[in-house]
Fold this protein.
Amino acid sequence: MILTDREIQIGIERGSILIEPRPLEVAYSSTSVDLTLDPIITELIQKKSAIKKVIDPTDPDFDAEENMAEVSKIHDISGTYYDIPPNNLHLGWTAERVDLRHDPKLAARVEGKSSLARLGLAVHMTAPTIHAGFNGRIRWEIVNFGTMPIRVRPGMRICQLVFEQTLGTPQKGYHGQFVNQTVQPITKKT
Amino acid sequence: MKLRVKKIRDGMHPSETVVAIPTSEGDERLTVDKNALGENTTLEIGWPLRQKDNLVLIELPRETQSGAWRVWVPRDALEESMAAA
């Protein structure tokens, strides 16, 4: 079940949804709330070299943050703008911190905005789910699929967050269900 | 319930940090918001899902760098006692 603007605002007032800083009134639509671009953007750089590298996420020593740092460049665009070139992966973050820890039956999906999508800008790739219990800034995978650079600025509304109420409570939301149990499915609610 | 974790390094964004999750199969790396870390470098993980021997199955608030959501961790890595649950 998707939450309406009113239900999102009630959730924020009650503290079951935390978005900091709070979205402006104009950030809401009937079934979503827009989030904005943080000034930090990471650009993945393809260095020209005869020595070819490959990313192996199955390698036991794979460290995404460390390895990606080797092939990326961080841009702080505070007070300015950034032109996202076509066909190059960038990582971005929401300026807002989202905290869903206070209601185990709330999840969300991050989606692009049609106004930007029509220009070719995608803000996530195959991973839109914000799971129940999430806490932090939402990280985007930004790709410009258009033919010309697209200019972005900090604070611009760049994605929308759609809240969903789960059917039932996730297992980790159950209080003390497992105590003194051996490995077996949880079937009843305390 | 809170899980004791260990900071490894800063994340790619100034708000993030990378922590080591002590699982039964070795450490898993997880990127979290710095605000998500509680006192004594703990991470809120809700309520554990299963237990066997001295291990408990938990769900992490984010996907680890290897793609895991649920991991078995040592029971004594939890901040609050199981009895208190």
About this structure: The domain at 5-173 of chain A is CATH 2.70.40.10 (Deoxyuridine 5'-Triphosphate Nucleotidohydrolase; Chain A).
